[in-house]
Amino acid sequence: MEIITDGPTLLLGGDFDVRSTWEVRTAIYELLEGHDEDVVVDLTDVDTIDLTALKVLAVATRLATRQGHHLTLRGCGPAVRRMLHLSRLSRLVEVERAAASA
Fold first, then answer.
1. Exposed, middle or buried by CB within 10 Å (0-12, 13-18, 19+), for 98?
2. What is the pLDDT of residues 4-54, one digit of tens each?
3. What pLDDT digit, counting tens, does each position of 73-89 carry?
4. How far apart are CA 61 and CA 39, in angstroms?
5. Which CATH superfamily is domain 2-95 in?
6. Are 69 and 32 in contact (CB under 8 A)?
7. Of the residues 10, 15, 32, 82, which has the fewest C-beta atoms closer than 10 A?
């Protein structure tokens, strides 16, 4: 799992699964504590994601809301969207809408 912090944006790459959830959780929480801005988690380069990882994102979303911020998921590919839908966590997280192509 590759994690890059770019201001209030967290760029993730690779396999986001139970093996990397602690590392990602820590990075998200540090962003929430260190910025007054809303946080974006960019999943564009995530190859696979599992339910444990999605739960981390859902809990982080709830924490952000309690702190008066938003946590938005960006770059959710079909596999991520499918897992969000199947797990019903799509109701708990905010997914950025893809920009319409011209």
1. exposed
2. 999 999 999 999 999 999 999 999 999 998 777 899 999 999 988 999 999
3. 999 988 888 999 999 99
4. 9
5. STAS domain (3.30.750.24)
6. yes
7. 82
Domain residue ranges of the chain, discontinuous segments joined by +: 2-95
pLDDT of the residue at 37: 84
How distant, in Å, are the alpha carbons of 33, 39, 47, 53 from that of 63? Answer: 10, 11, 26, 15
Paired with 45 in beta bridges are: 13
pTM over 0.85, yes/no: yes
The DSSP output letter for 89 is G
CA distances from 19 to 49, 61, 68, 72, 81 (A): 11, 20, 29, 22, 21
Provide the pairing of β-strand 39-49 with 2-6. Answer: unpaired
